[in-house]
Amino acid sequence: MIPWNNELSIIGTTDVQYNSDQQGLKIDENKIDYLLKIYNHYLKKQLSRNNIIVWS
Question: What is the per-residue pLDDT for 56?
Fold first, then answer.
């Protein structure tokens, strides 16, 4: 997790290798759920999908 712009944090990445065309590179729903689960396990403020901006 990296603080960004004094208001947001960047959370990621996963350790899954991607060997296809990078033009189609996009996080899938399972990885979003995984990152939210890990975040919520370790941090007091809980996040949901309503709190996130997905950027790949």
Answer: 66
Q: Which domain holds residue 34?
A: 2-14+24-51
Contact call for residues 31 and 14 (beta carbons, < 8 A): yes
Alpha-carbon torsion, ordered 32, 34, 35, 39, to 10 deg: 130
Q: What is the pTM of this model?
A: 0.73
Say how far apart CA 35 and CA 42 lie, in whole Å: 11
Residue 31 lies in a domain: yes
Place of tokens 């065309």: 21
Distance CA 38, CA 19 (A): 25
